[in-house]
Amino acid sequence: MIELVMLPDAEVLINPEETKFLQIPTVLSKGGLIAKGLDHLKIQEMIDRIEKVWSIFEKELPVLLPTLTNSATNLDKTLSQIAVKSGETLNNMNKTMQDISDAARSMQNLTDYLERHPESLIAGKK
């Protein structure tokens, strides 16, 4: 069974070498369009490049692996030290904030007392 469909906007494929025979123009299917697009890709070049990169990677990996392991160990030690120091720093910061809060409360108490007993500035507290 052959189905003939009119597609005015489609790209028509005619083989120019066979001009002495009567031809019916054909249109690529979606699969054919994909295959035509893949023809333009240089797949073998890509494979060759990937193989080249992979061979370099295989050569360099034994050298890089110990260095990466050492770097990861050093990073872990450094982060542990920072965690300890940051904990101490936060504790000191909390203590400082508490001391500032206590000092502000004492100032508030002093100003309240002086508002109620202004004469205490001259005579002192009785």
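the 2nd protein, sequnce then structure:
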Amino acid sequence: MKDSNKRKIQELVTACRETGELGLVSCSSGNMSCRCDDGLAAMSASGSWLGRINEEAIATCRIDSGEVVGELKPTVEAGFHLGILKSQPNVNVVLHFQSPFATAIACCEKIERNFNCIIEVPVYIGEPAVVDFYMPGSDALAAAVIEAMKTHQMVILRNHGQVTVGRDFDEAIQRAVFFELACKILTLQKDCKPLSVEAVEQLAKLNKA
């Protein structure tokens, strides 16, 4: 394995553990992947605990074909990880997380929230997409997430969790943290006043800069 890919795997391990420290994942929930050299992707293995993962629990797959390189089975959600990396060359990291408040909102019967309650949402995230419930690991879920992520940077999976992306680990984790904060405010502050439409429009320009 190339030294550059070994470094990527080490960075992935560090980032996965950080998601646990930040409360974005619990136990074996959530998964994370990153783009490597030679058309490969590294991702957390099936059943691994991100908060205490090590290099022995990182699987490798070919982005184009999905072929597993080695004996370790990747996360059950490898389909949408690889599909996003394949269809979006500017995305280098995919994070599926299940933080408490964001997941609580994902379980609501109606998800009609204005998430623009803090400036970080329009600046770093934009409007999240909502995907109906599909069985974890299914082709239907993968297809829905891949399609939604073409025009969004955050996808809410009903009764399941969230998916976000980034050019690097920091960007993906930051989006997850800020989205969790917004969901916490919306859950605890029943009369939350969102930002004005004008403010959101101006802040959104920073996202695209």
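The helical segments are 3-21, 78-87, 100-106, 120-125, 139-148, 169-188, 197-208. Residues 169-188 form the longest helix (20 residues).
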